[in-house]
Request: fold
Amino acid sequence: MQMKLLKLEKVKDGKYLKNYELTYLNKAGREKTYEIVSRRELKNASDLGKNPSGISIVATCNDKLLLLREFRMGINQDVFNLCAGMLEDGETLEACIERELYEETGLKLKKVKRILPASYAAVAISDLKTYIVFAEVEGEPGDDHTSPNEEIKASLYSREEVAELLETEEFSSRAQMAAYFFSIGADPI
Reply:
């Protein structure tokens, strides 16, 4: 028997996230309830993961990788991450890239090298779908221009510095993967 979604029900409507329970028929033919969160209003199964809602930027500047050291409330600590953010209503991808770079780093977009097709960011707990953007940026990282609810320090790191950080610091999964490939000299494009 193949797994089958029987019911999708919103159980909480938070300010940024909506909590849902999905009732499945598992391979053994038994009902199983699974919890997820979404940034979007979901009416039925066809809405799951339907529309990309954000970006993650793998940015380089003069052969250095842009990494953010940011406090993440979900783990109550600093972690190295990529510049990332959510698309605003009606915003183009390029406008979102430029805005997020400026807000979080003070850097300017020089060139978009590639945008991968949207992919899922946290499949175990969410239907969040984002674009991975490879970009060249210019300028010097400065103070972040984000809300008082975010604590971000942007810096540019050489391959050697990134290799050392990978051994000593905490990373988000996506930033760790980008940092690893950068540290070994792999061209992401």
